[in-house]
Every structure is written in C-alpha cells, then in structure tokens.
Specification:
The complex is a heterodimer. By secondary structure, chain A is α/β, with parallel strands linked by helices. Helices cover 33% and strands 23% of the residues of chain A. Chain B is mainly α. Chain B is globular, with a radius of gyration of 20 Å. Classes of the chains: A alpha/beta, B mainly alpha.
C-alpha cells in the first residue's frame, strides 16, 4: 500500500477566470484524517474538486495511490474505484423515485457500463451489510427524498462503505446538521474510518470538530497559509492570520 | 358506449395501424427519456427544442430538402449549442433556453413568411400528423427506442448519480460531460423524430406528463423508468384510438389522455403514499 495516499505538488487551479488555488503542496499520509479549513471563497471546494479531477488544474501535479491524475482529470478505473466522496447536498427536489437501498447499491458498482441486474445478489448482500453498519437498515425501503438531513448523511456513509475503499473525501458534509446529528455523524465517521482504514480529507468550518478528529490541518486562503497538527495550526494567531482580524477563536472547555 | 363496428373499421386501415404503432413507440420513447429529463430539470429543454425545431423545418423547406431530414441534424446541433452555452455561461439555464428558442422561433416565422406556400401546412407542423407516419418512420422510431433502452439500461448508475450530484458522479468515475451530452443529444433526436407525429406545440407533453405520472406512482428508479415508458405508450395508443373514433385531432387527443393518466396517478399516489399522520413518530436525526 503506497504511503502517502495522496501527494499534491505546487497545485494551482483557476475558477471563473481567477486563480482560486495557488501553489499548494501537501501529502495525505495513509489512514490519516486531514481537514481543510479557511474562510468562504478560500478555494477549499475548488481544491477538493481539482484533487478529484472534477475541474482541470492549471499547474502542478496530483498523485493518488501512486497514479498521476491526468491533465483532464482521468484516473485508472482501479484507482477511481478506491475513492469515496460525500458532497454537501444531493439534488432531491420533490419526490425522487429512488430508495435508500438502491442508492447505496450504486456505490457498490465499479465505474463503467453494466446491466442493472449485474452482480445483483452480491450487491444486495453488500448493501444490507453497509446499511446495518451505519444504523440505517430500517431506512432501506424509504425514499432518499424522504430522509432528514442527518439520516441522509449516514446513508451517504453507507454508500462509501458498501465496498472497500481507501480514500474518503468530504466537502462540508456536516453543513446544515444540528448538533446531535453532527455528533452522531462524527462518531460514525470515526468508527468507520478505523474499521476501514480510510485516509480522510474533509473540508470543514467546524474548528472544534477539526481539533478533535484531525491528524493534520491545512489552513487555506488561496495559498496554503499553515499546515500541521491541530495544536500547531489552530492557534489564535494563525487563525487570525487565516480568517482575518474579526476571527474570535475559542475552545470548548469540555474538550480541553 | 364504444362503437365496435366503427373501431374495427378504423383499425382495418393500414395508415391507422401505422399511426397506432407510431404512437405507441413515440409515447414509450417520450416516457423513457422523460423519466430522466424531468428529474434533471430538462422539461423546458424539450419544449424549447420543439419550438426551435420549426426553424429546422423552415430551413429544409427553403433549401428544398425534406424537412424531416434537416430536423435531426438541426436538433443535435441545437442540443450541443445549448449544452455549450449552459456550461460556459453564468446565466441560468431557463433564461438561455428562452433566448435560443424565441430567437429560432422568430427566425422560423420570418423565413416561413418568405415561402409562398408550403405543401405540408403550418397546422401540420404545429400539431403533428400521426396518420402520415410511414413504414420508414416506424423503423427509425423503433431503432431509436431500442438504442435509448440499451443506453439507459447500461448507464442507469451514471444517470442516477449524475442527476443527484454531478461531483459525486465524477468522483466515483462517471464520465459526466460525455453522459450529459449523450443524453441531451439522444433527447434532441427523439424530439426531432417525434415532431412529425406529435407536432411542435405538444412534443414536451410526451416527455413530461407520463414521467411525472410515473414519478408519483413508483419508488424504485428502474421501475419508474419502465412505468413512465409504459404510461407514455399506453396513453398514446388510447389517445389515438379516441381520436380515430371521434375524428378529433390526434396530438391533442393523446395529450388529453396523458393528462387523464396523470390525474389517475395523482389520486392513486395520494391514497397509496399518504402523508404520515401527526400520530406517527418524527424522523430520527
């Protein structure tokens, strides 16, 4: 297994005609959790999109599991199938005819065309197991569009865990969750990460959660302003550097 | 009461048989692609393409080529142009579609005013002439239905993920740009081929109404696609039979039957999938 899982070197990305990410370099060590933090418009989601090959990069290189991401964002299927992604939201306007079990089943299928009945029994068994692991088994026949925000996020983790993967990327996955749902999601993510040996990269605005769960923090404001362990990165001085003088850093007493 | 003798007479006519098969296939095709188009908020695209197709037909008339032959490349070109505009412009999709479709409609009307007489007649373009469907048309529509069925079956995962979240689809290996373009081109070809039978004004109903009815009735995605297609075909068949018996225009008759089907689906869905009562526990976070 290659170590580190992701190597980003001098990455620059343009979005809407302006440089959104400039000369960013970092590594994601195997089975580590890395948080990307920074103000709105700092290029966090752009960085994630470029890393996943969803938008073209202007300069620099991205290497995932030992394979270079091509200029147009292509990766070999075997590498692509090792990546899981949890977006901020899904387009579920109105009544969307898709059950939880079906959605999770689409996470089981590798990339490429195939008939819907291909590997039906194996897929069904994997879906049941993953829904069970995330505490969503009772939701399997519910429509995805009928779920609450917290349930939907747990179902998305079922989608990721339905077959073995190595890299999990979350783009503000906890946005819009209330405190208990956020706690439950965090707990589940931590549990699954340990069981699966995932390397995790997540974009977050929840600095308290980042401090508790991350091994590494990347402070991004177009450029990489700071990086390192949470204790090293999330100091009041560095946070003011990153977010500006209006930032008032504090730590929950209960988490010490 | 249905006059069975009149029905038998109508069904015995070869043109009516072709019309019924054409209607069945066109309706099924509209429902099939409509199921994905509606979820991807492309309902207005089929409407805009239908109206813009008038320009394609007019160009065909002006250059002296069978309008049906011009219509397919025109529709594909329109689809690619709109797709590029949507990808590159920061304007909302519905506004862009409105600009393209009203401009092409205006150009079509201007060009048509230059043509002294058109044998086909503008009424036929607007409302379609399912009775004029030829055997060749049936073969083309049949092949298109088979192609659409195979494409959607093989790419069901890609279509669902692309509809839910483009980034999610791209991250797990779906060729998002290719699939988006392929679907929109397929939809454009289907709209172009169906216009002869259905007409410019009513084409979007064939795409939107059966799939909305299917959406109300189904919970599983493959079943939803299948039911939308079956509803599209069945409504078209019943509408054409009603039109043949009552001597009313075929396109509008089909749309009225589709609407009836939608109302039935609405009633069934409210009974089958009733809202949770207040005594049921609230969803857990």
């Amino acid at each position: 297994m290659p170590n580190p899982v992701v190597v980003v070197s001098d990455l620059s990305v343009e979005r809407s005609g302006r440089l959104a990410v400039e000369q960013v370099s970092f590594e994601l060590p195997n089975e580590s959790e890395t948080a990307v933090v920074g103000p709105n418009g700092a290029g966090k989601s752009t960085l994630v999109a470029a890393l996943l090959g969803l938008i073209p990069k202007k300069e620099g290189t991205v290497q995932i599991l030992g394979e270079q991401l091509s200029a147009n964002g292509d990766l070999p299927g075997a590498i692509r199938s090792q990546i899981a992604y949890v977006p901020q939201s899904l387009a579920l306007q109105g009544r969307f005819p898709l059950t939880v079990a079906e959605f999770v089943g689409y996470g089981f299928d590798p990339p490429g065309p195939r008939w819907p009945w291909h590997q039906h029994q194996r897929r069904k068994a994997a879906v049941e197991k993953s829904l069970d692991r995330t505490g969503c088994i009772d939701l399997r026949n519910r429509l995805l569009s009928e779920l609450s925000g917290g349930q939907l996020k747990r179902v998305m983790l079922s989608f990721c865990v339905v077959r073995p993967r190595q890299l999990l990327v979350l783009d503000e996955a906890q946005a819009g969750l209330d405190v208990p749902s956020n706690e439950r999601f965090q707990q589940l993510l931590l549990e699954l990460r340990r069981q699966e040996g995932w390397t995790v990269l997540h974009v977050s605005h929840d600095l308290d959660m980042v401090r508790r769960s991350s091994d590494q923090v990347l402070g991004l404001n177009r450029r990489l302003c700071c990086s390192g362990s949470p204790d090293h990165t999330l100091t009041p001085e560095r946070l003011i550097d990153l977010y500006g003088p209006n930032m008032v850093p504090y730590r929950h007493q209960c988490h010490g | 009461m249905v006059d069975t003798q009149a029905l038998a007479l109508v069904l015995a006519e070869p043109f009516m048989q072709r019309a019924l098969i054409g209607g069945l296939l066109t309706g099924a095709l509209g429902g099939l692609l409509g199921s994905v188009a509606v979820l991807r908020e492309l309902s207005f695209f089929s409407d805009a393409l239908g109206h813009s197709a008038l320009l394609g037909i007019t160009i065909g008339i002006l250059i002296g080529v069978n309008p049906t032959l011009v219509l397919i490349p025109f529709a594909v070109l329109f689809a690619i142009l709109v797709n590029q505009l949507v990808e590159r412009s920061s304007l909302p999709t519905d506004a862009l579609l409105n600009i393209v479709y009203s401009t092409s409609l205006a150009a079509a009307i201007l060009f048509l005013s230059l043509v002294e007489s058109y044998r086909g007649g503008i009424r036929q373009l607007l409302f379609g002439d399912i009775l004029g469907v030829s055997s060749l048309d049936l073969i083309v529509i049949g092949m298109l239905l088979a192609a659409a069925l195979i494409y959607l079956s093989l790419s069901l995962r890609a279509q669902v993920l692309l509809t839910l979240n483009q980034d999610l689809a791209g991250a797990v290996g779906v060729q998002t740009r290719w699939h988006r373009l392929a679907f929109i081109v397929l939809l454009a070809v289907v709209v172009a081929v169906s216009i002869k039978a259905v007409g410019v004004l009513l084409i979007s109903a064939f795409v939107v109404i059966p799939s909305c009815a299917g959406r109300l009735l189904c919970r599983r995605f493959p079943l939803y696609v299948f039911v939308s297609s079956i509803l599209g075909g069945t409504c078209a068949l019943l509408g054409l039979l009603a039109s043949g018996l009552t001597n009313l225009p075929s396109g509008p008759s089909v749309v009225m039957v589709q609407f009836l089907g939608f109302l039935i689906a609405l009633i069934l869905s409210s009974r089958v999938f009733r809202r949770p009562s207040t005594t049921e526990p609230a969803p857990q976070p």
